[in-house]
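Tutorial, part two.
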Amino acid sequence: MASDKALQKADLSLLRLADGTLTVRLSGEWKLGKQLPQGEELRGKIESAETVSRLTFDTQAMTGWDSGLITFLMDIIDLGSEMHIPVEKDRLPAGVQRILTLASAVPERKGVRRKATKTSFVDRVGESSIAFWRSSLEMVGFIGEASVAFMRLLVGKAQFRPSDLLLTMQECGAQALPIVSLISILVGIILAFIGAIQSIFAVTGFLYVLLSHGWTWGDGTWMNPASPHFAVYREALTMTQAAIVAGQVANGFGCRTERESV
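Running the prediction step on this input gives:
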């Protein structure tokens, strides 16, 4: 059983000849689902070797293959092209040669493969500044056009049909009441929930400071400025204020979107 598994395991070895030919010996089953060697492993071995004039393959010990072998060979061919080393495919199985010929006959379209690009900090600042400037110009233009239109309305030079004005007033008035009421209720529920969460943290911090210094329920003398415990009371108020600020900062980060920052 152990010998059968060893024969099925995909493996490769290198044989260097005197004329500079580097033979890649493939053995075992080169199929998906098995642990296959990677092309990058062969890169290090080639770079560590002396001058290589060409690459050949020896597949006599290979017992099976599928697209996993094709992927590996494509990596080797790309590696040879990158390192300017000819790759001979005549000793590969006939089916493999046909597939590689078809794959090389149709070149990869440029722009299809996504390349991860890392944007520098200066580029990000520049893009943000340009976007902010453009949005500012659009906002100023909108305000200007609205102001001009309103001034034309005041001096009686605006041209519109009274029926259109009444229709717009109706749509923004009575017809908009249901949706505006629904949105108001939902926003109120959200604000009430957020306020309750912030209140819990604020009150917890306030009581923690007082109770940790020996305060008892119903004792109002600590709030007197003349009391020796007034400093503890101020510390509890500071903790409450810190909880409120932290809650508002969390709200700000929670409102971020992909297009809008805090």
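The first strand starts at residue 11 and ends at 16. In part three we will examine how such features are distributed along the chain.
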